Amino acid sequence: MATVVMKFGGTSVANVERIRNVAQHVKREVDAGNKVAVVVSAMSGATNQLVAWVREASLLHDAREYDAVVASGEQVTAGLTAIVLQSMGIPARSWQGWQVPIHTSEAHGAARITGIDASEIKKRLASGEVAVVTGFQGIEPGRNRIATLGRGGSDTSAVAMAIALEADVCDIYTDVDGVYTTDPRIVPKAKRLPKVSYEEMLEMASLGSKVLQTRSVELAMVHRMRTRVLSSFVAPEAIEPVRGGKHWQDIGTIVCDEEEIVESQVVSGIAYAKDEAKVTILKVADKPGVAARIFGPLAEANINVDMIVQNVTPDGKHTDMTFTVQAAELPRALEVLKGAKADIGYFDVKASADVVKVSVIGIGMRSHAGVAARMFQAMADRGINIHAITTSEIKISVLIDAAYAELAVRTLHTLYGLDKE
Ligand code: ADP
Ligand code: ASP
Ligand code: MG
């Protein structure tokens, strides 16, 4: 008998009919004798609506009340899922984050899970009950308030529950049948990856592939939790139950140790992120201490800087500094730079949110040279100007004009041999 966590995303629980379909997937695992904890998102669109209402009520709002409102979407789907399961004769009970309890940090709206007391859920699973847990939320014990985990946070709830329950696998059911070489909605030629390493998945998620929340991959990687991405839109009977046969793992994508991946490509995936903004500070003095005077105040204001390029200007005394921040942080970043103008000493600041970061990711890059050179050449051949570059051992990112996003992703997908035949 296996312990399984099954997470269902927004489109999978978008209405009662879809919840009935989800219940059939759960029934398959229960019938096979597995212990099942289900984690659900809100119905697709529900969280957006809740966020919009909060903003309408007041643009400046209390973060604890924001969480009280936006966490409610998952309460609805958890209750409905339990009701549907019960109606099928499967003992089930819904659990909100605070009832489990799932403890979180104080960072309302973007809280981290700090611990889960899974003892009661374990007892219920042992007695044959299915636990349906609300994703996206927990309770901040200091103030005894509901806290949410940031958008897409139900993935993290699921992986954290799987770790707490010592589950055999954490199954993430969504609207695509696995992790693809790039977003299949942008590139129809994208291929499903049967397996992807934790390291690559972490880069893909943090560089914009929203199929899994970054934090969920971090947790899975640290705890070596086997995590699988698969579609809830496949007929429930077409999937073998967990440990229910030789081929149960031959579906979807398994996020696992790189040692398990036999045929690895140099590049495994392409990601893109549209939520960055570019800032250029014109004509700052080219002398020691300038970077510290620019990035110090930004760090103090809790603004994360991602890519940084320092240009050389012809007079040798001045330089331009280009860097990126999250687009949502741009107005704040500009305020901070304005406030520090006298201290930094610059001519002007230019900013643009019309940029996109495109990244190629692959553990094979560690042992293969020339991946970056080919990328830059391909961009040049298409007339795509690169504003900034960052690299790590297993990824290269370039910042380009947003208008070229799809062209760049498609070009790179073909360049590294990822297109499906
Ligand atoms: P859920 O509501 O189930 O959490 P999400 O919308 O958060 O679903 O994530 C699934 C979506 O992620 C897919 O519909 C797909 O468009 C997008 N996506 C982006 N990059 C990838 C990728 N590399 N592989 C698969 N899906 C991806
Ligand atoms: N419902 C939340 C959101 O839309 C959490 C999730 O779906 O993972 O962000
Ligand atoms: Mg999601």
Overview of the structural elements:
The chain contains 13 helices and 20 strands. It has helices at 16-31, 46-57, 63-70, 72-87, 119-126, 154-164, 198-206, 214-223, 290-300, 330-339, 341-344, 371-381, 405-415, and strands at residues 3-8, 35-40, 92-95, 102-104, 113-116, 130-134, 137-140, 145-148, 169-174, 195-197, 227-231, 253-256, 269-273, 276-285, 305-310, 318-326, 348-352, 355-361, 388-392, 395-401. By secondary structure, the chain is of the alpha/beta class. It folds into 2 domains: 3-259, Acetylglutamate kinase-like (Carbamate kinase); 269-415, VC0802-like (2-Layer Sandwich), CATH 3.30.2130.10. It starts with a strand and ends in a 6-residue tail after the last helix. It has an 8-stranded mixed beta sheet, with helices on both faces. Strands 13-18-20-19 form a 4-stranded antiparallel beta sheet, sandwiched between helices. Strands 15-16-14-17 form a 4-stranded antiparallel beta sheet, covered by helices on one side. It is 33% helix and 26% strand. It is globular and about 80 Å long. The structure holds adenosine-5'-diphosphate, aspartic acid (ASP) and magnesium ion.
**CATH topology name of the largest domain:** Carbamate kinase
- Distinct compounds present: adenosine-5'-diphosphate, aspartic acid, magnesium ion
CATH architecture of the largest domain: 3-Layer(aba) Sandwich
Oligomer: single chain
Low-pLDDT segments: none
Q: At the fourth CATH level, what is the homologous superfamily of the largest domain? A: Acetylglutamate kinase-like
The tally of beta strands, per DSSP, is 20
Shape: globular
Rg, rounded, reads 23 Å
